[in-house]
Amino acid sequence: DILSEEDEQDRVPLHKLKLLGESEELRDLLRNPHLRQLLLALERARDKSSLLRRFMQEPLFVEFADCCLSVVEPPEKENVLPE
Over pLDDT 70: what percentage of the chain? Predict the structure, then answer.
């Protein structure tokens, strides 16, 4: 498959994905049985997009998603004065 430039922008490089395995905060979240059930349900779902929309209303799932994003795309430091 040849990906368009737009598709490539949505991909996370492998070296950044590996950082997820090093995140202690993410590991702690994944110890939560409720989150694990949500992730399993999402993996097994036929209509993943509608289930994902529903899960994005779940605070625990949003916390998980935010944690993943902060690892692979750390927020830029804004309004930070040089030391």
Answer: 80
User: In 32-68, which positions are buried (b, 16+ CB within 10 angstroms) versus exposed (e)?
Assistant: eeebeebeeeeeeeeeeeeeeeebeeeeebeebeebb
Residue 75: which pLDDT band, with cuts at 50, 70 and 90?
A: confident
Both structure tokens of 9: 């922008």
Q: Whole-angstrom Cα distance, residue 61 to residue 52?
A: 9
Query: At 49, which amino acid appears?
Result: S
Amino acid identity for residue 69 in this structure: L
**What DSSP assignment string belongs to 2-65?**
---HHHHHT---HHHHHHHTT-HHHHHHHT-HHHHHHHHHHHH-SSHHHHHHHHTTSHHHHHHH
